[in-house]
Amino acid sequence: MDIAGARRSPAGLLVTWGLTRLLLLLFVLKVLVFPGPDVTSDVSVIYQGWYEVLRTGTFPLDDVTWQYPPAAALAILSPALLPFLPYATAFFVLAFLADLVAFSLLLYAGLRTGRSLRGAWVWVVGVPLLGPTVYARYDVMVTAVVVAALLAGARHPRVMGALIGFGAMLKVWPALLLVAVRRRSTWMATAVTAAGLAALFSVAMPGAFAFLTFQADRGTEVESLGSLVFHVARQYGWDGQVLLNYGSVEFLGPWVDVVSTAALALTGLAFGWLLLWRLRATRFEAHTAADAAFVAVLLFTTTSRVISPQYMVWLIGLAAVCLCFRASRMGVPAVIVLVASFVTVLEFPIYFGNVVASDGLGVTLLFLRNGLLVAATVLAAVELWRSTVPPDAETPVPTQPTLTTEETSVSS
Fold first, then answer.
1. Cα distances (angstroms) measured from residue 9 to each of 2, 120, 392
2. What is the Cα–Cα distance from 15 to 263, expressed in whole angstroms?
3. Which residues 6+ apart lie within 8 Å of 279 measured at CB?
4. Residue ranges, the chain, pLDDT below 50
5. pLDDT above 90: percentage of residues in the chain
């Protein structure tokens, strides 16, 4: 993707981005009809319903589908910035602008000396593979914040920390960006930003953290890795149900609690592996923070009880930042994520009815998509370990002055 001609002129990137984003806007504005169920109803019904509650100065205290940290209110309220447009249209325009911000940052980063336009291409190609769902969820806004944080980290560690703190208060998962951060200033900026926002919302709006109690009785979402157990079990008479529960379509019934607990245990093991990696890693380069964040989010996404289609936006954004660095070894996992994104748009929304019915096509698509995610996760984790951990644990760690992530980036 990063050919010499593309490096000299980003014209191909700009044209491709413009055409694909125009197509996405035509889909969400219903000028063109995308196959499958209408994915924009989350904005026009759910988000707009939350908007009406939030604008009164309180969180949706009686709505168990509100499962987001308090700064998510800013994303839901953001269409008020465009009062001359209907709520849904304003939201789509703002999602489009978030997409543009992420693309612009990746393009700028890719044109710098020693960097690559591969990352910008991953974003340009990957986002439309998910179809109109991208602009019908606020995850693209969160991902833009994460892209900005990782690209700012090398030269502006405090800005990186502030953006991570803000992102974590938007949707929690950006906190995983800290897994490879060593600068105390970044950690402090993250803590101060997150604590400040938490305090502000707690004082200004009742119920800022009510969402923490809204997921106690969740089942296993029908697109998750664990759901494959029940998709297969249904072929042999499993008598559970598929119901809309806590805002997603989930399996409920016998053994669901066991599979859900197993998913949580896998997530715990993923956290343990990340901790072990962090203790053993000694080689930190300019791209390590992005690579580690990509691996961390892959681990936690793949093992989660819920794998919503919009989660793929996170992985595309992180893969794009990784490939902005020529030395990153995440090329193969990034390509696998792109393929998984294409399969994702097939299983939702195009053939989601088949998935819910657990028929041959639906189960095949889920096995393929989730298998690709597992493959990307394993390969990315192996590459991260090999590139940062000494091959022999008994070999003394070199004591020569080691450039920090930030200093390495500046020198490059």
1. 11, 13, 44
2. 42
3. none
4. 1-7, 393-412
5. 84
Question: Is the Cβ–Cβ distance between 154 and 127 less than 8 Å?
Answer: no
**Residue closest to 225 by CA, chosen among 327, 47, 117, 376:** 376
Taking the model in full, what pTM does it have? 0.93
pLDDT per position as a tens digit, 293-311: 999 999 999 999 999 999 9
What separation in angstroms does the CA of 319 have from each of 147, 182, 206, 292, 348? 10, 21, 37, 11, 22
Handedness of CA 346, 301, 170, 323 (dihedral sign): negative
In Å, how far are 75, 151, 156, 212, 215 from 65, measured between CA atoms? Answer: 16, 33, 36, 11, 9
Between helices 157-171 and 139-152, what is the axis angle to 10°? 160
Instruction: Identify which of 145, 179, 198, 158 has the alpha carbon closest to the alpha carbon of residue 300.
Output: 179
35: three-class secondary structure by DSSP:
coil
Answer for the pair 306, 296: CB distance below 8 angstroms, yes or no. no
Given this model, what pLDDT does residue 214 score? Answer: 61
CA atoms in the 13 A half-sphere facing the CB of 83: 0
pLDDT of res. 397: 47
pLDDT score recorded for residue 408: 41
Encode 229-277 in three state secondary structure. HHHHHHHHCCCCEEEEECCEEEEECCCHHHHHHHHHHHHHHHHHHHHHH
Give 261-298 pLDDT, tens digit per residue. Answer: 999 999 999 999 999 999 999 999 999 999 999 999 99
Sign of CA dihedral 276, 278, 282, 284: positive
Q: Please, what sign has the CA dihedral across residues 239, 242, 243, 248?
A: positive
Q: Is 54 helix (H, G, I), strand (E, B) or coil?
A: helix
pLDDT value of residue 216 = 57
